[in-house]
Amino acid sequence: MSVSRSIFALVTDEDRYYFGQQGKGSDHFGYIEPGTRAVFGKSYAAEPDKLIEELAKDEALQEADTILLTIPNTIGVEYNIHLLSSILEHVAPGLGWR
């Protein structure tokens, strides 16, 4: 099962400015390819410790064999690199992601 999430580790003031007020949505279901169900839509934005705690409770993430991280394409490549690096550095290790 593939799961898509918008996950933002709030580690800088700029992160808090862009994503600090993001509410949590709900899951949406669909298919990436025939026979492969996907879950889309839920967003997370928090300080890394809180984010790890919240993500560990997400049943869809626990069951997924593929996690797709969605990031905005309008903020620029450099900032998107920061967003992904923040997940890799501050969140992934706490969840055992590799």
Secondary structure layout plus pairing:
Blueprint: E1 2-9, H1 13-19, E2 28-33, E3 36-40, E4 43-46, H2 48-56, H3 59-63, E5 66-69, H4 77-95
Parallel strand pairs: 1-3, 1-4, 1-5
Antiparallel strand pairs: 2-3
Helix pairs in contact: 2-4
How would you portray this structure in words?
The protein is of the alpha/beta class and 98 residues long. The chain is built from 4 helices and 5 strands; from the N terminus they run βαβββααβα. Strands 1, 2, 3, 4 and 5 form a 5-stranded mixed β-sheet that branches. Strand 2 (28-33) and strand 3 (36-40) form a beta hairpin. Helix 2 packs across helix 4 (77-95). It is globular, with a radius of gyration of 13 Å.
Describe this structure in a few short sentences.
With 98 residues, the protein is of the alpha/beta class. It has helices at 13-19, 48-56, 59-63, 77-95; strands spanning 2-9, 28-33, 36-40, 43-46, 66-69.
Features:
alpha/beta; 98 residues; 5-stranded mixed β-sheet; 5 strands; globular; 41% helix
**Distinct helical segment count:** 4
Question: In percent, how helical is the residue content?
Answer: 40-55%
The fraction of residues in strands falls at: 25-35%
Poorly predicted regions: none
The main β sheet shows up as: 5 strands, mixed
Task: Estimate the mean pLDDT confidence.
Answer: 87
* Distance from first to last alpha carbon: 17 Å
Computed CA radius of gyration, to the nearest angstrom: 13 Å
Q: Give the SSE string.
A: EHEEEHHEH
What structural category characterises the helix and strand content? alpha/beta
C-alpha geometry: globular
Number of DSSP strands? Answer: 5
